[in-house]
Structures are given as C-alpha cells and as structure tokens.
C-alpha cells in the first residue's frame, strides 16, 4: 500500500475514506468533495489506483494547497492482460477491493467511526465494510436525482415521470408528466453488466450525497428520498466550493492564456464553446465530424472547439480516426472566427468569460453543472448513460438549452443544416436571448447555493453534523 501527505492519525472521532470511480468526470467530483469535507477539519483519505490518482492530481494542480490536507493512497494494479477486462476502469475496480479493505481495517483502529464514501460505480470495491463494526457507507451520486428517477422508471418498464401533487408547490414550474429517455443498448454488454453488478452493492449505503443543488433538481431529490427511503444531501455544485477563492488568470498556465486573451477581444455572449468531454472522441465518428464542422462554419458562429482524444480508448473501434475538413482549422483561425484546441482546455474559465454565450455539449453532468452555474445555455448533444436524462433536464425542465441531436434519432447523423439552425437559435437575439436570461437567473441562484448560509452549504453542514454525531 502506497500513501503520501500525512502519517495515519493516532485517534480521531471520525475518519472519512473516499473511493472514486476512475474516469475523470467522476474522479474530479469526488476530489472536490474530499476538499469540501477536509475543510471541516475532518481527516480525509482518497484511495484509488496510482495511475488514476496521479492523473487527477495533475489536472487539479490549481488545488495544490487544498490537496495537501488530503491523504492519497495510490494502489498499484496489474496491467491489462488478455484475461482481464478490455476497459481499464473495470480492471481497476476489480483489483481495488482487497487493498481498500485492508486500508479500512487499518483506519478503523484509529477512529471511533469510519465514513466510507464511494462513487455509485465503485460500490463493489467497498463491499467489505460489513466486516468493520464502526464503518458506515455512503454513496456519492455524480449525476442528478432526475437522472436516477428516469433510470428507475425505465427499469420498471415505465415511460413517464409523474410529479406527485403534494410536491407541486412552485407556480412557475411545469408539472406535466415527463417522458424519460430510453437508454438501453447505449453501452456495450460488458459495461452494462458492470453497472448492474455495482447496483447490487449500492443498495447497502446509509445515505446519498450528490453533486447538485435544490435549485436545479430539488423536487426530484424529494421524490427520490420517498422512493429509496434514504436521506439525500445535495451539496453542489462542488466546483464552486473548490474555486471560491480562485482568480481566473491565476488558475491557468501560460499555454492556455492565449484562449482567454482571444476571448477578451470578442463581443459579450458571442462565442460558442464546444466540448464533448473526456470519454467521447468525435474523431471516431468521421461522417458526423464533417457535418459538425460544416454546420459550424455555415452558422458563422465564433467558437472555441476542444478537439482531443478521449481519455478512454474504445476497444471496439477499429476504424481510422476522422479529421476536420481540409483547411477548416486554418480558415477559421485566419478569419478570426474560431479556435481549435487539441489539448486540455480550461473549461470553467472559458464558461465564466463574458464573451461565452453558449456551450455545445455532450451533457455530461460536470459540464452541465459548470455551464448552469456560469449562466451559459447549452446546445445538447447527448451520447450515452446519464447524458440523455441530463439533456432532458436542461432542455425540457429547466429550459436553459435546446437539442441539437434528438435522442429519438440518436442512430442517425445530424446534418450540417440542422446544426447550423440549432446554433443560430442558441446564439441568436430572440430564442437564444431568452434562454440566456433564464440560464443567467438560474446561475445566480446556483452560485449562491454554496455561499455561507446557502441551501447547499446548509446541506453539507447537515451531513457533517450527521457523520460526527455523538458516538
């Protein structure tokens, strides 16, 4: 077992151990949660594979001071082999159970209570908590309660999410039944089986934390509490807490500053930010890539497009990676219309910038929540898992975005003409301006949620009071 930062505590009333799921969008959220909990002067241990822990620490370099309060446990896992899973994240989960169990046993001797917070997709890793009398497991939900309710309804062969009358207390809210997206078959069988396996252990959690706030999906939190009969603490947006004292230009390196310099020269709300996250590579969809670039050029929208390989290689992809149309990148740069970024980009700083007026996104929850908190409307292009439900929440419930790719037609390429029209609507002075106003109003509420006395701050206080209750 490899550790760093601190010696193990002698005796503590409570020690928190956090287990991430090893893809960036999940690790990022639980790392932010670790920082939040450690700010209450509670010892926090972050346990994962050495390769994934190193990756998240590198990308969170701006949190260096806060990370110094967290003890990382970097476990070595064997390399992929012909007999192992094709996916590194599944492989890691399969090899972390034993070292995590040993860590929990060791720490249990040094605290009166061990709080084990695990990602919903890392539930099997902590299953041995049952052998530790002073351990309590809590599940971290890296998406919305709306998404979980949608999944439950689909599993029960339902089609609509109906809001009970006793919860319908906001006159400005549309309480019509919501048709939930059908997502079966959007991931391969190996991943689907893995997710089902995790679900059986997730049911053992004492309570749930999730990275959202009541201004975003509070009514759905109440519905899920009734459904699961468990306490849920919506403590987000977590990125606001870790970046509260951050100055925009201080958190990015020199190689990225040119992007903000370029944004400084653009008109307010005139630039579209484009990113499909860390698990999706548009280069694997050559026909669609060509249509997207053409539609973007037709729309004459100024843009920053993050065009990079995904963190996770798709083992089923055997084709050649697509490239942008010949001359596209050079034309856009020469005209001053757009920038293509082929490396990591400072997404939050770009969304915070006054010149950014829209976000073309896959609707991963990290991206949605950052866009909401910055008051930037979303052009939704969901791909898989929780993304269709997130897109539905954004476009139909919160009404702070529009669909570019309709989920019902997910197997068809989106034409350049459709993309052109959608982007003109999003960035335009009519429908786009109305969405931007709603997004900005919601963003102001969400930003206040994590301030002292805000709804999410109070939720976190409540969780801390719960885990530190008298023993």
UniProtKB/TrEMBL annotation:
Domain Glycosyltransferase N-terminal, chain residue ranges per copy: 13-239
SUPFAM superfamilies: UDP-Glycosyltransferase/glycogen phosphorylase
Keyword tags: Glycosyltransferase, Transferase
GO MF entry, a single one: UDP-glycosyltransferase activity
Enzyme's top EC category: transferase
Pfam families on file: Glyco_transf_N, UDPGT
EC number: 2.4.1.-
One of the GO BP terms on file: carbohydrate derivative biosynthetic process
Family to which this protein belongs: Belongs to the UDP-glycosyltransferase family.
Stated name of the protein: Glycosyltransferase
């Amino acid at each position: 077992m490899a550790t760093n930062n601190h010696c193990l505590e002698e005796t503590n009333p409570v020690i928190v151990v956090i287990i991430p799921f090893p893809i960036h969008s999940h690790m990022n959220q639980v790392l932010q949660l670790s920082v939040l909990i450690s700010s209450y002067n509670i010892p926090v241990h972050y346990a994962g594979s050495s390769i994934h822990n190193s990756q998240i620490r590198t990308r969170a370099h701006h949190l260096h001071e806060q990370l110094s309060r967290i003890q990382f446990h970097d476990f070595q896992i064997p390399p992929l082999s012909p007999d192992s899973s094709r996916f590194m994240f599944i492989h890691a989960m399969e090899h972390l159970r034993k070292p995590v169990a040993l860590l929990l046993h060791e720490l249990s001797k040094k605290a009166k209570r061990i709080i084990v917070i695990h990602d919903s997709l890392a539930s099997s890793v902590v299953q041995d908590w049952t052998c530790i009398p002073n351990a309590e497991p809590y599940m971290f939900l890296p998406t919305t309660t709306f998404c979980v309710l949608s999944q439950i309804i689909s599993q029960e062969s339902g089609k609509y999410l109906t809001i009970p009358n006793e919860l319908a207390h906001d006159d400005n809210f549309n309480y019509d039944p919501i048709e939930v997206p059908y997502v079966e078959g959007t991931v391969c069988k190996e991943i689907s089986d893995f997710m089902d396996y995790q679900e059986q252990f997730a049911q053992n959690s004492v309570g749930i934390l999730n990275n959202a706030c009541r201004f975003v999906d509070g009514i759905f939190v109440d519905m899920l509490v009734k459904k699961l009969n468990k306490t849920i603490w919506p403590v987000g947006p977590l990125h606001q807490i870790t970046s509260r004292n951050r100055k925009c230009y201080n958190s990015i390196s020199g190689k990225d500053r040119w992007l903000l310099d370029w944004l400084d020269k653009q008109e307010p709300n005139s630039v579209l930010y484009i990113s499909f996250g860390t698990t999706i590579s548009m280069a694997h969809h050559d026909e669609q890539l060509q249509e997207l670039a053409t539609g973007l050029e037709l729309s004459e929208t100024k843009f920053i497009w993050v065009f990079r390989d995904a963190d996770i290689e798709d083992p089923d992809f055997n084709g050649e990676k697509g490239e942008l149309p010949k001359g596209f990148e050079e034309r856009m740069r020469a005209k001053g219309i757009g920038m293509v970024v082929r490396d990591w980009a400072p997404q939050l700083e770009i969304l915070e910038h006054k010149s950014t007026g829209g976000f073309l996104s896959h609707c991963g929850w990290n991206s949605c929540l950052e866009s909401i908190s910055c008051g930037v409307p979303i052009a939704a292009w969901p791909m898989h898992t929780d993304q269709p439900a997130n897109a539905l929440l954004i476009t139909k419930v919160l009404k702070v975005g529009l669909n570019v790719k309709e989920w019902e037609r997910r197997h068809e390429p989106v034409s350049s003409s459709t993309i052109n029209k959608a982007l003109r609507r999003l960035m335009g002075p009519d429908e786009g301006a109305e969405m931007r106003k709603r997004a900005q109003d919601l963003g102001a509420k969400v930003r206040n949620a994590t301030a002292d006395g805000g709804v999410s701050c109070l939720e976190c206080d409540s969780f801390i009071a719960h885990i530190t209750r008298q023993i």
